[in-house]
Amino acid sequence: MVAVNELQEMYENMVTARQYEERLQEEYLEGKQPAFDISAGPIPGELHLAAGHEAAGAGVCQHLRDDDTVTAPHRPHHVAIAKGVDLKRMTAEIFGRESGLSGGKGGHMHLFDPNVKFACSGIIAEGCPPAVGAGLAAKQRNTDSVAVAFLGEGAIDQGAFLESLNLASVQDLPVVFVVEDNDWAISMPKERVTDVENGAQRADGFGLHGARVDADDAVAVYDAARDAVGRARDGNGPSLLEVQVHRRMGHFMGDPEAYRPDEDKDAAQQRDSIERLEADLRANGVDDETIDDLRSRAHDRVEEAIEWAKDQPEPDPDDAYEDVFVNPPSGVTDSEPSTADTGGDD
Amino acid sequence: MVAVNELQEMYENMVTARQYEERLQEEYLEGKQPAFDISAGPIPGELHLAAGHEAAGAGVCQHLRDDDTVTAPHRPHHVAIAKGVDLKRMTAEIFGRESGLSGGKGGHMHLFDPNVKFACSGIIAEGCPPAVGAGLAAKQRNTDSVAVAFLGEGAIDQGAFLESLNLASVQDLPVVFVVEDNDWAISMPKERVTDVENGAQRADGFGLHGARVDADDAVAVYDAARDAVGRARDGNGPSLLEVQVHRRMGHFMGDPEAYRPDEDKDAAQQRDSIERLEADLRANGVDDETIDDLRSRAHDRVEEAIEWAKDQPEPDPDDAYEDVFVNPPSGVTDSEPSTADTGGDD
Amino acid sequence: MAQQEDNASDQQADRSLTMSRAMVEAIAHEMRANDEVFYMGEDVADYGGIFDSTQGLLEEFGRDRIMDVPISETAYLGAAVGAAQEGMRPIAELMFVDFFGVAMDQIYNQMAKNTYMSGGSVNVPMVLTAAVGGTYNDAAQHSQTLYGTFAHLPGMKVVVPSTAYDAKGLMHNAIRDDDPVVYMFHKRLMGIGWLPAPDGPKTGVPEDDYTIPFGSADVKREGADVTIVTLGLHVHRALEAAADLADDIDVEVVDLRTLVPLDTETILDSVAKTGHLVVVDEDYRSYGVTGEIIASVAEAALDDLEAVERVALPDVPIPYARPMEDEVIPGTDDITEAVRTARGDE
Amino acid sequence: MAQQEDNASDQQADRSLTMSRAMVEAIAHEMRANDEVFYMGEDVADYGGIFDSTQGLLEEFGRDRIMDVPISETAYLGAAVGAAQEGMRPIAELMFVDFFGVAMDQIYNQMAKNTYMSGGSVNVPMVLTAAVGGTYNDAAQHSQTLYGTFAHLPGMKVVVPSTAYDAKGLMHNAIRDDDPVVYMFHKRLMGIGWLPAPDGPKTGVPEDDYTIPFGSADVKREGADVTIVTLGLHVHRALEAAADLADDIDVEVVDLRTLVPLDTETILDSVAKTGHLVVVDEDYRSYGVTGEIIASVAEAALDDLEAVERVALPDVPIPYARPMEDEVIPGTDDITEAVRTARGDE
Ligand SMILES: Cc1ncc(C[n+]2csc(CCOP(=O)(O)OP(=O)(O)O)c2C)c(N)n1
Ligand SMILES: Cc1ncc(C[n+]2csc(CCOP(=O)(O)OP(=O)(O)O)c2C)c(N)n1
Ligand SMILES: [Mg+2]
Ligand SMILES: [Mg+2]
């Protein structure tokens, strides 16, 4: 059974993520209409929204501490929020501002918050090996920290993930792999890319524990993750957990989704894990006022983060030359601006 | 049941491979004693002998035709022989001669014989994707050719193999993956690198057919391969077949094998698949004379190949500039020798 | 029927096409002409390619020839290698060139070397397409060109079109070539709905098929004072810079079109005339294209050189935020400035 | 305790060590001093490293710190990245640099970029070791140096020792550096039992620890007439060539020691003196090290240059047979000839 306060925390995280992305979407589209231009507006570049994935982030991260490591893929916001990443600095990062988590160098696919040990990679499945490394560090140092790698169901065909399963398994590392199965990898439905319906089955070939949560349900995820994270924390080795989620939007902003049947789009809208959890909350005696409070707290936090971020200054062009190394080679710096090659366009 | 003539063919292939490698070993050590120098002697570079693996090559290839494709890894001789690669030109290649299969460009890890569709790669598991591609070509062209990728048990942790299982499976391609399990990957025993005892278990995670032959026994391999190759040829999709073999020698010539327990070395000597098959032959009524004939035919073939190869001229140094492309760019050839940079040492 | 190009700048055609349409037209033509040509990649079927590289092809050629594949670049690029070695002519797409790292072994150790390692008895007639380039704030893992990385490693021809006309002729040549060709198209030039292209790449394109031979650079603008050698997107920025400078300095713009083979002759002829060399590319500055071009001229015609300048991405990963990305990706102003510096007027 | 090097050539020590012993000594020292340092790789434990890179370390440090890993380079190099991000200081070995293609994404997109993408809030203090080089007929997939490939991509420091003295000091610096360092040791220089080394690399080595800073090239021989810039094995071939030429031409030999950062100053000083530049390396000729060095000098000091020559591997995969391998790998004679050409006497 899940304690009511935990249900509320998950709910708040999920609502925050959903509202956050709705606001991002608005901001993102600014300057990109009527003709869509990915490089225009206050948030340029690709933007992958996770609406419909919230239960996975919230249900798993509910079991994590600040000293547990999480790696996320290209669709990271809901996980970042559930892991406790600094929302203001994350937003500033997405807006490409100086006070962003990475000073504007990373953007939405490259969110790093060392305070809560959160990192992303935009390359499919390549967050898995570093998560295994975090698990290895925990084992070497004899702590009870764990590491969790999130990935999409489209990523379970990638060598980086498959090798990681084996390495974590043979070294008995405290790692949990969480596959968010939203049925689609951009335009490719799962059945076109693998013969296995249940992605957790990949675990069988490597002798590690596998489980799947079939419903897009935060409580079910919470329960399955308690087991998986608990095993890792107790020194009982890695797990692979697949979680059904739904992609409520295009793969990225600007995706026309012409490839996707209308029924599938509709179904994704109907299976809303947030509504489901709200019903659970009510069933657990949480009243309307409390729920409204949670929602408005989420709303305020989101607005505050976005307003703050938009107020932040843009980075200086020359900041681009910093941070290649933390020990920059003294004397010889190849990356220094020289008059001719980097005079700047602005 | 295996027909007696097939038993004899396998036996001859296996004896040929064993005798061939014994002779290669002698030749290889020339100029490398008393102090071992890998770059000296008539056969320089790494040499990975397959003594103890013969049953895998013979048992599988017995089901293959010239138009079936085989890719082999760094330990290829027994498979090449069973697949019918031209022994003389293969030997000339290993001796680095002009009339070698690749004119001396490839050496023992890079044997290519397009007449029988045989190819190697020295990079672990990287022969698997091209085998999948050969299977794909067969399917696209609607032929009944199949493709077989050989690899070692140490290669089943590599992404290239694991991705290939999935791609072959989801596209239902006529491919057989044959894992030669000799218990060792150089100095690393299987249990140090994976939690799965039976490598064929990897198949489970991808929904393809898996099987393991537990004894180093050509007849058992033959039977299992009949099934796997048959499925592929009949359009019933790929298989993963693991076969127990034994490494009778070091990983490569010059390997001191200090890491390997004596009992393990002894055990490998005792479980000789060639003796086992010889017993099977006798049990099937094949007489001493026939067996002697097969052995001496193998012997003669090996001697002839080695003598022929050693008689062949070495390549011209300038041959090194040929064959980068089959359509060399006209006019501009970057790889042409220029006086200064490639004047030659000789 | 096919015509060899006489002089790109002389060619006229009634219709202009975007670069992506021109590329797709060549592919469709070759697919009609030859059953052995097929296209594989992620999201190339229903989606039509994230960068419109296969728009409309699924409808005409069906799923077997316009083939979606799992997110397993090693497996499917390797499968293309295998199918090509069987004599088929696959075109395989790496969605972003930035992903090369997950599959580089198949690219550089198999695709690029099998011809040589087999002494030419095997060849690999495949085209590897990949999207390159930044300017839309997609950050460090999705904005690279990596020209130098591919051009450095032997065995692949490397093609980088800058206009629709070139894109079509080079694609015809790439598919017909019997060697592996890496065809790198710049996202910003394609004319994709969501990423507006500048005017330059949209050119007249003959309806008939025609080939542009590899190793023939194209003088996109003639001039007497300074030679700019460049490729891809930066052809257009260089032309802009040349136009801006036209009153003071007469700039010649050489579009390399292929990096392997490299048309050193055209470069040397131009420098013999101008004496001033500015090399511009969008790849990292050090150990790459700009160094190679300057060194080639210094080696062959040191006395012709009065000044050299290079304009490239400084040796930093590509930052996300607009001011920093603008700073590091060479702009028209950077080129103008470098030309002035080369002429000695700062 | 640790001393910063004053001048390598002044250093004397009672004992000489092979390059591998010197390298191992530095690793052992750092492992004693810091529990967070550990070594992972294939065959690094019981075997002691195929190239003696970990000889004897298992006995002292045990399996947890001298760690054999599955043949899954992506997983374990990525695990090193992850552990380094947790603040550990892993040393991870890629057995042959030629295998980079199976794991390049972890190397160049994660290890090398996470510092930058995080705006410096995360750093990756790891050392990636790899054996490089040919001269023993191991053919196209096991003989490369790939210097240019690594040096081209930003975010990694790239180190190439040529003597035992340098190997130790550079290894101490590499392990203590807070950034990712790629440490490439040439097989031919290590002093491995099965691959005899020339005399040069075995030098006096102080017992105490000392660091050689990155970005400081070492003038291994002073001379007034011609500058040879080189690294790794070819330092010794260049010194041999210089000795052969000593009666006619006074050759200076600059050993780069690190490619990133590059010590342009030392090169320019030397060329200012000699006016004649010969660049020698064992990597592919085009788009690599030789081009970069020549271009850097041409950019900074065109007027100093009277002649440039480069001596490198022509743009062909490395052939197996001895006459062809000898032809393509630059020999002492090739260097001698290039020096003479640079001086105008052919
Ligand atoms: C190695 C690699 N290949 C391809 C891509 C391009 N890509 C980005 S997201 C994506 C689909 C991922 O699908 P899935 O893993 O199911 O995650 P989802 O987007 O559905 O959340 C692809 C192919 C990439 N980033 N990295
Ligand atoms: C990607 C890659 N990693 C490492 C190696 C070095 N290597 C060559 S053979 C080998 C062991 C292979 O073991 P296994 O697959 O069991 O085959 P076996 O040698 O036992 O026949 C290794 C690690 C390689 N060639 N390629
Ligand atoms: Mg998905
Ligand atoms: Mg083995």
UniProtKB/TrEMBL annotation, chains A, B:
Record's keyword annotation contains Nucleus: no
CDD domains: TPP_E1_PDC_ADC_BCADC (cd02000)
Keywords: Oxidoreductase, Pyruvate, Thiamine pyrophosphate
Organism: Natrinema hispanicum
A GO MF label: pyruvate dehydrogenase (acetyl-transferring) activity
Cofactor(s) recorded in Swiss-Prot or TrEMBL: thiamine diphosphate
Biased amino acid composition, Polar residues: 330-346
Highest taxon of source: Archaea
InterPro entries, per database record: DH_E1 (IPR001017), PDH_E1_Alpha_Subunit (IPR050642), THDP-binding (IPR029061)
Domain Dehydrogenase E1 component: 40-317
Leader sequence segment: none
Annotated segments matching region Disordered: 279-298, 305-346
GO BP terms in the entry: pyruvate decarboxylation to acetyl-CoA
Name of protein: Pyruvate dehydrogenase E1 component alpha subunit
TrEMBL record, chains C, D:
Annotated InterPro entries: THDP-binding (IPR029061), Transketo_C/PFOR_II (IPR009014), Transketolase-like_Pyr-bd (IPR005475), Transketolase_C (IPR033248)
Pfam families reported in the protein's UniProt record: Transket_pyr, Transketolase_C
Molecular functions per Gene Ontology: oxidoreductase activity
Record-linked CDD domains: TPP_PYR_E1-PDHc-beta_like
Protein name: Pyruvate dehydrogenase E1 component beta subunit
Keywords for this protein: Oxidoreductase, Pyruvate, Thiamine pyrophosphate
UniProt-listed PANTHER family: PYRUVATE DEHYDROGENASE E1 COMPONENT BETA SUBUNIT (PTHR43257), PYRUVATE DEHYDROGENASE E1 COMPONENT SUBUNIT BETA (PTHR43257:SF2)
One GO process term, biological-process aspect: organic acid metabolic process
Lineage: Archaea, Methanobacteriati, Methanobacteriota, Stenosarchaea group, Halobacteria
Cofactor(s) the record lists: thiamine diphosphate
Domain Transketolase-like pyrimidine-binding: 17-192
